[in-house]
Amino acid sequence: MNETPLKIDTGKDFVLHGSLYLKSNASSDAVIILCHGLRGTRYSDLVRYIAENLKYHVITFDFQGNGESGGSTAIGNLNNEVENLRCVISYVRSTLKREILGICGHSKGAAVVLLYASIYNDVPLVINISARYDYANPDYVEKVFPDKLEKLEKDGFFVWEGGLSGYIVRKEDLIERSKIDMSRVKNIIKEKARVLTVHGSKDEVCPLDGAYTYNNLIGPEPHHKLIIIKDANHLFKEQEDELLKAVESWLFENQSWYLGK
User: Fold this and answer.
1) What are the C-alpha distances in Å from 170 to residues 47, 76, 84, 208?
2) Are 193 and 114 in contact (CB under 8 A)?
3) C-alpha–C-alpha distance, residues 198 and 208, integer Å
4) Which residues lie in coiled coils (predicted)?
5) pLDDT digits (tens, 9 = 90+) for 83-120
6) Rounded to whole angstroms, how far apart are CA atoms 113 and 116?
7) Is residue 131 a contact partner of residue 86, using CB atoms and an 8 Å limit?
């Protein structure tokens, strides 16, 4: 395996940075595109673990305003990140001349791949690892930022410490976040795509109920498969191997479906 750096022009005023991981034991010549979560990068622990160990060629990249990529980011900018993913997909097809077997994301990145699939329906296999479903929950700010409510009301923003340095959360971004409608996954065309959802039973960040909702909207099998990993938290600490095995097995099984279409 080797890591090749990528620079992807968005056609705007910034470039996305990514990495291509080619595997000698790859199960297909096609690639899997892997998307990181909120305030993460392509080198976040779980993303890098999957990228390095999955028996498929993998491309990871930093969403705009994250890691090495240009542009700016915000807590509710999933639509922008969907377009980032679209740029990467176009680059893989037109510049790298490779087919895309699947798109996979963790947390916010998983919501992005689901939304992408619901709009464009042009990637056969879609993997959702721990995506949130309900973005309209009014208790989110109070639960996650209880000590920032006063500053948010007074100044209209606050700085989220830790992770990405200087990450600013604005009131208007939280309003945009609350408008995200994940029920759009029902627009994924069953004849064109299959979806896997993997969620930890003890996810403390994105409620497990969302995984069952995705199953109801996209399912039944074989259109959607739901795997709950017992005792796993949001980052699958101590269950990375089980997560990897679930993803890899599903990809291998459904690769046959895709090739036989």
Assistant:
1) 27, 10, 21, 27
2) no
3) 10
4) none
5) 999 999 999 999 999 999 999 999 999 999 999 999 99
6) 5
7) no
pTM of the model: 0.96
pLDDT 10s digits, 191-220: 999 999 999 999 999 999 999 999 999 999
For residue 237, pLDDT beyond 90:
yes
The DSSP element (H or E) to which 181 belongs, if any, is none
Fold category of 2-135+181-259 in CATH = Rossmann fold (3.40.50)
- Summarize the confidence of residues 5-34 as an average pLDDT: 96
Average pLDDT of the residues of the chain: 94
- DSSP code per residue over 222-260: TTEEEEEETT--TT-TT-HHHHHHHHHHHHHHHHHHHHT
Tokens of 13: 């005023």
Whether the Cβ atoms of residue 100 and residue 46 lie closer than 8 Å to each other: no
Which residues 6+ apart lie within 8 Å of 17 measured at CB? Answer: 5, 6, 7, 8, 42, 61, 62, 67, 68, 69
3-state secondary structure of 104: strand
Edge-first strand order for the sheet with 224-229 is 2-9, 15-22, 57-61, 31-35, 100-106, 125-129, 194-200, 224-229
User: How long a stretch of residues is the chain?
Assistant: 261
Which tokens is 148 given? Answer: 């920032």
**pLDDT confidence tier of residue 77, bands split at 50, 70 and 90:** very high
State phi, psi for 195 to the nearest 5 degrees: -130, 140
